[in-house]
Queue: 4 jobs
Job 1
Amino acid sequence: MDGKAKTMNHELVQERERELDTPGPVFPGRRSFLGMLLGIGAVSVGALLSVPLVRFALHPVLARTTETAWSDLGETEEFSSITSPAKRLITVEQRDGWRKMVSEKAVYVTRGANGQLRALSSICPHLGCSIPWNEGKGQFVCPCHVGAFAPDGALISGPPPRAMDELETRIEDGRLKVRYQYFRQLVPTKEVIA
Ligand code: FES
């Protein structure tokens, strides 16, 4: 090979190297397409899995803040001969958002005008004090502002705007059950608030 041919050959080699160094148009290869599919799949699965978690997290906020349950007051037989209101303590569970509160509430079992068993809330409808039964007076007498109520819960005197609040009852297998609820204070009509 003479000098001229060598030079031409060298130039051809350099040109070929320049061509190889020049970046051409980039097409997504099979790997990047699979990567994209995997990414979409992972995002979709993540979104699907997060739905129950989000629902679980929001449930206390979206659900009713308080669920009312039935509590047992005892055998109806126990109350067959009562002559004055009988106090019973029940355990009430309340749910407020994510918090669960358990408290003990006093309920009075008494008799209505036609002799049927009734349950009264001991929370005063005036400002919420707990009303005890006063055996000597034969009345419920609220210690806060001396509101007085008859044995069946009717308002006798004082600042309370209405009678004591009657709770829903039912008899199940010979046992008296009560559904405990809270009522708005300072209003003349009974309004459930929880
Ligand atoms: S809170 Fe009962 S009379 Fe005022």
Job 2
Amino acid sequence: MKKLLINMFLVLSSVMPLLSFSEANPTNFSETCEDGSGETGSSFGIGFGLVLDFGLYRNSCPEAESIVYSWVETAVSQDPRMAASLLRLHFHDCFVNGCDASVLLDDTEGLVGEKTAPPNLNSLRGFEVIDSIKSDLESVCPETVSCADILAMAARDSVVVSGGPSWEVEVGRKDSRTASKQAATTGLPSPNSTVPTLISNFQKLGLSQTDMVALSGGHTLGKARCTSFTARLLPLQTGEPANHGDNLDFLESLQQLCSTVDRSVAITQLDLVTPSTFDNQYYVNLLSGEGLLPSDQALAVQDPGTRAIVETYAADQSVFFEDFKTAMVKMGGITGGSNSEIRRNCRMIN
Ligand code: HEM
Ligand SMILES: *[C@@H]1O[C@H](CO)[C@@H](O)[C@H](O)[C@H]1NC(C)=O
Ligand SMILES: *[C@@H]1O[C@H](CO)[C@@H](O)[C@H](O)[C@H]1NC(C)=O
């Protein structure tokens, strides 16, 4: 029912561009008529009513979408994992004080960035691709396209070039003049999280249980280090009865990987079957006990509610794609801190 309401709203909002809302509870709509500019469109702001728009750059920078797309396409053709890394950057941006490009800031005198927070350290990739996009955009339409919007468009394009669905990205985000290593440390979910923890972590940002399971499907792309899935190997090491619906052959292959190479550098695919294709294989893997992160496998075994969603997505890719698109638009609408400028260089405030 809740999902139906959200879908109805998304349909409504695309035909009624003057309707906007910003509520902590995404099902509690307040209809506000905006007058004047005609620049505002539908918004899915969850924090303080940042108004996002579908067509903002159509006039101010018509080349924006194609510039982003072609850089992403090139980067992913050279390194298929780059799609994963760019998708994850947008997630790590939005979960920390909203989608404000705080994740891109380097440490400078007077500013501690988020790149050294434990969930990000030696793990985030793709900053150079964002730099290239930004520098191209600054020469074509200076100080027009925010770094936070570049992240949102690059995340969508990464999914598309990997074979996943496309959707219209709302734009109009502003970039922050601050970052929070503390918020990045506590706000990003740990791979050891239980299902209730994951649900509440996402709920705080206005994302439902269904959104959480659908967004976890981002793990159909990319890689993780042994340090991220140590807890999956515990049943082998302690001899304790396997839980998590464990697939012992799979766990043994992981243990072998992580013991033959330096554990801190060993990495493996989050989706062992189709690692560079955006598809529903991740959910199929969870049902056979081949989820890589503890938090992935937990979705299929810890909670009947998330299990049912996993089964649905494993059986029907089109349901996964629809829910993923919806959830990405919601995640991309999270707002938080004070985002106030369009950076000229995504790594530093103006
Ligand atoms: C549900 C909670 C989530 C947890 C606990 C989680 C945790 C992780 C961890 C631990 C890694 C591996 C990092 C490493 O070992 O270096 C990872 C990688 C990744 N995550 Fe998540 N994640 C979650 C949700 C998401 C979401 C919502 C997305 C995007 C929609 C996402 C996209 C990715 C991608 C694409 C990678 C691979 C990145 C690469 O290869 O560069 N994750 N995640
Ligand atoms: C909707 O939000 C308004 C304002 O925040 C609040 O007063 C009202 O009780 C909410 N209604 C529902 C059904 O949650
Ligand atoms: C997850 O749990 C394992 C085993 O208890 C631990 O070694 C590891 O450091 C934890 N990882 C994180 C990211 O908390």
Job 3
Amino acid sequence: MAVGRLLHGRQQVKTCPKCKINKSRAEFAVNPNQGDGLNSWCKLCINFQNSVPCECGRGRKSKTSKKCWDCYTVGMPGRLQGTEQLAALLSRTDRDKNQGCWLWTGALDSGGYASFTETKLGQKKAMVRIHRRVAELASGPIPAGYQVHHKCAIRRCINPDHLERTDARSNIGEMLARNAFLTRISLLEDALRELDPRHPALPDAA
Ligand SMILES: [Zn+2]
Ligand SMILES: [Zn+2]
Ligand SMILES: [Zn+2]
């Protein structure tokens, strides 16, 4: 018995009899009453079994929200369309008084862009970059090969006036590189002006 337990304990993978998927030991809850020290079913299958169907009949309730995903997301931007969606997105921003940026207060994606989860009823969820969606909703479809870039260079800004469509050649990377270059030139000019105010390379040299 002890030997059997030891052998089982060494196995790194175990098949869940419910979902029939090979899973690592970490995906099963500890249960000292079982021969291998783990529950027979995986955690996911046990959670699903314990979760309660939602009254709407479309899914099962999440433990945290006590609603199914479809009910939980009612009224969220991802469930709205057209001008309603645009208004809902733009209302979830902090308005910056200096530069006029409308800063998204919700989730950002790994690139630092404002993003939200699109949840059309009964369909797969999809992550959407909000500045692209806002540009589309505010001024029509974005042609293939075009990007939407931020004139303000603030990625989480979704102010339609700060968004500009450009083709791939004039993208934000180039714009930022050019700005950095211009800043560098003006710093060098300032340094040169201190050393030699009449240097002919200076734009305002007499
Ligand atoms: Zn399972
Ligand atoms: Zn529901
Ligand atoms: Zn901005």
Job 4
Amino acid sequence: MKADYNETIPNNVNLGDDRRLLRALERWHPAYIQWWKDMGPVNANETEVYLRTAISVDTDGWAHFDHVKMPDYRWGIFLAEPDPDRTIAFGAHKGEPVWADVPGEYRSELRRLIVTQGDTEPASVEQQRELGRTAPSLYDLRNLYQVNVEEGRHLWAMVYLLHAYFGRDGREEADEMLERHAGDPDRPRILKAFNEQTNDWLSFFMFTYFQDRDGKFQLAALAESGFDPLSRTCRFMLTEEAHHMFVGETGVMRVLQRTCELMRQHDSTDVRPFGGINLETVQKWINFHYSICLDLFGSERSTNAANYFSMGLKGRYQETKLDDDHKLDGEQMEIARVTEDGGIDTETISALTAMNLKLRQDYTADSQRGLNRFNKMIAAHDIDVELTLPDEKFNRSIGIYSGIETTPEGEIISGEEWAKRKAQWLPTDEDKTYVNSLMVPVTEPGKMASWIAPPKRGIHGRPVDYEYVLFH
Ligand SMILES: [Fe+2]
Ligand SMILES: [Fe+2]
């Protein structure tokens, strides 16, 4: 395939002048388009979608709106503008100028960080691929596709780094991004939560609320990196991530609003007979999505995480705003430990090895803020129910608590009791069947499915009943 890549791929990395990079992308691009057609949104190659396309990084250029067919979307490569005075903010190299190239001694660690991040991007597109069949409105369908094309662009961002800075093994890693697939028993995606299916729209809103927020925190930690191209790439990606979390938060909020309206109208906590989703059901979806997302942060105690920090490759959330020496040599901290008799006490560990825990705690605080807004809305309907994040020990597969079972409140229980009670806390087959029964497509402009309230406003100044998606 011959294409003017400088034209087809909007970029601010001088793509046109870099022969080696162009050759690598010319090989990868057709495979990417094939992947999009095979594994991306179902039945959507001819559909025209009102999409936001980034064509440059400045304020006018990063949000250009138009109807486009998704395979023709211009997946650009953008790095945030460089800061010529930027220095490394943490770890052993603190205070040194940032690296414009990969430091040889940290090459494999950096590649691993980029591959792990990059793998999540196409994974989420694959996970969400069936959702286009059952969108509750054209507005929501458009938002799904917007998230999908931007996750595709995030893959481009990581593939750019692999092609531009890692030579042959970078190119091999880029190829493998299109060969692993979400839920594939032989070649799964790297992280477990990115192999779960996202079959219903309540799950999609939870995904964009919780899982994209994990993305925000990972990107924010990588945006601190001493490897400047990675930092600049992640800083630009964060602008798009904010929209994904907006889709999640407003989506959950609209589900809750509809539920509350039905509860008031029928004076009942069970709104299923009226085509709504019970608050209890929403809580189960929260319990599931939040707990699998905590696993994404990895073990609380991690030598890899300590190394990434000391090497200056991955910082903490808002590293420069933290009030310490940003090196943490010799610092200690207390973390929980599960004792032999299945109780909890604490142990003292090196603070450097607890980087994953620190990032996860910041994630929890950020997740809670949205829940507070949900609860305010529920209270405004005079309904005495509070949604909560389950305890960090609940339903965990990775880290300190992976060997124990607890209630959502964090009370330790036996495996037997867990088996007996988990249907109260996590989505059951029956819950899923019910939620799936609500998933019928609504394609008339401005109309919403029974279980969700309309959005407050449309996209980019357009009315809610605008034709955000044109079918052919
Ligand atoms: Fe992403
Ligand atoms: Fe995202």
